[in-house]
Amino acid sequence: MLFLSRNRRLSRIAVLTTASDLSVRILAFLRDAQWLTRGRLFGYATILNAASAAMIVWMLMGHGITDPAGRPLGTDFVSFWTVSAMLHNGHERAIYVPEALAAWEQSVVPSENAAFYAWQYPPIGLLLVYPLALFSYLWSLAIWLGLGVVLYLTVLWRILPQPLTLWAGLAFPGVLLTIEHGQNAFFTTGLLGWALLLLPRRPVAAGILIGLLSFKPQLGVLVPVALIAGSQWRTVIAAALTGLGLVATTFILFGGGIWSDFLASLPLSREMLDNGLVPYYKMQSIFAAVRLAGGPLILAYSAQALVGVVGVATVAWAWGRPTDADMKNGALLLATPLATPFILDYDLMLVAPAIAWLACKGVRHRLLPWEGTTLTVLSLVLLVSRTIGELTHIVLAPLAVGAGLAAIVGRIRAESLKAHTHPISP
Predict the structure, then answer these.
(1) What is the dihedral of CA 398, 152, 242, 141, to 10 degrees?
(2) d(Cα 262, Cα 365) in Å, to the nearest integer?
(3) What is the distance between the alpha carbons of residues 374 and 214, in angstroms, rounded to a whole number?
(4) How far is Cα 266 from Cα 275, in angstroms, rounded to an integer?
(5) Distances (CA, A) of 243 to 210, 220, 305
(6) Residues 6+ apart with CB under 8 A from 349
(7) How far is CA 122 from CA 7, 110, 393, in A?
(8) Do 141 and 179 form a contact (C-beta atoms < 8 A)?
(9) Closest listed residue to residue 331, CA positions, set 409, 216, 239, 250
(10) What pLDDT is stored for residue 366 in this prediction?
(11) How far apart are CA 349 and CA 21, in angstroms?
(12) CA–CA dist 276, 287 (Å, integer)
């Protein structure tokens, strides 16, 4: 009996030792990310790009402007093209009337069960979509997406000019999501990305690009914080004047009543957010995460406000320091999705340049512990976030974006500590 008892104890010790050794190896695997090589990155990107190409081919095998499942190609693009057609036909005052817009959309995609694609952009957005109806729906969609992809890829190339950057950039899941929805995420990412790239040497041009981004104001909530913390006053003035100029242009082209229509439509936007008229699993904010988990409105707004304050503090801290501009830019792009309650999965295209800036650090220097795994999770989370949200009511993207922001903060602190430990001799 003593012999058997001793053997059992030894077996338990062996099992515990094996489990401990395995956990150490797993932690080292995730911490060091030695598996993240250029060859594997190219291979993973190739698989994702092949899958995206197959999906796009499948979508184009439908009838007319619909895919094989009967959905319009570009889905959300229906509202963009329809609004453009309404402008060209003198019906701008009907754009913010949901029933009128729905009727016009029915003329574009006739169907008994057609979805309604709302238009909740401020009138500045009308300037962006105005040219679309000059072309047929499919040609317009192709030009819209083609120009957007080029703008997005030029940002990545400027950050890290290597062919692998473009290949991996195309593999970012947000690219396929934006193409599927015919959305404007390529333009928002391109405008903000280029603004940040131009900021050090051409602050006025950067301000103009930021002003152009005002068609989607929820993505610019932290930009003033960054610019003021960084004392970028010329850019602030240029952005403000550009925004005012765009407002004036809408008054000239569409009349002042268009702004009254927009303001009258804001309660619908609030209702869409509060009541989940856009399914919460499609959204990727802290607000949506709480609501999808069954939390009440007050808790959702409170959690969103708390995270928003953290985002403001983080951006102000990063931009107020004499640190690398790349890391400041990354902090702004990653804090932005956390600071706004209304953000869809394709809007997380903003994350791609932040990944590129942090990866650039790893290429030129080395990846810090956990950075490789964080970049991988951040790059792939959009593949599963919507599906997991729908099935489990857990929204993963804010967690991944928060981890990315923490990695940026860790990088800034590490470089600051290194600068103080090894000061440059005069």
Answers:
(1) -100
(2) 49
(3) 31
(4) 14
(5) 9, 12, 26
(6) 152, 172, 174, 175, 178, 185, 186, 188, 189
(7) 74, 27, 31
(8) no
(9) 409
(10) 83
(11) 39
(12) 11
Domain boundaries, the chain: 62-414
Torsion of CA 91, 95, 97, 102, to 10 degrees: 100
386-412 per-position pLDDT tens digit: 999 999 999 999 999 999 999 999 999
Q: Which amino acid belongs to residue 314?
A: T
Q: Sign of torsion, CA 109 115 120 125? A: negative
To which residue do tokens 């909740």 refer?
A: 120
Which candidate, 318, 116, 340, places its Cα nearest to that of 229?
318
pLDDT value for 60: 95
In whole angstroms, give the CA distance from residue 315 to residue 333: 9
Q: How far apart are the C-alpha atoms of 181 and 41, rounded to whole Å? A: 27
Q: Which of the two residues, 111 and 422, has the higher pLDDT score?
A: 111
How far lies 259's CA from each of 95, 96, 242, 255, 343, in Å? 11, 10, 18, 8, 23
Cα 150 from Cα 154, distance rounded (Å): 6
Whether the model clears a pTM of 0.85, i.e. scores above it, the answer is: yes
Q: How confident is the model at residue 425 (pLDDT cuts 50, 70, 90)?
A: very low
Identify whether the C-beta of residue 251 lies closer than 8 Å to the C-beta of residue 341. Answer: no
Q: Tell me the DSSP string of 266-281.
A: HHHHHHHHHTTSS-GG
The tokens for 79 are 């509202």
* pLDDT single digits (tens) 232-283: 999 999 999 999 999 999 999 999 899 999 999 999 888 989 998 899 999 9
Reading the block at residue 184, the tokens are 């404007």
Task: Please give the Cα distance from 34 to 114 (Å, whole number).
Answer: 49
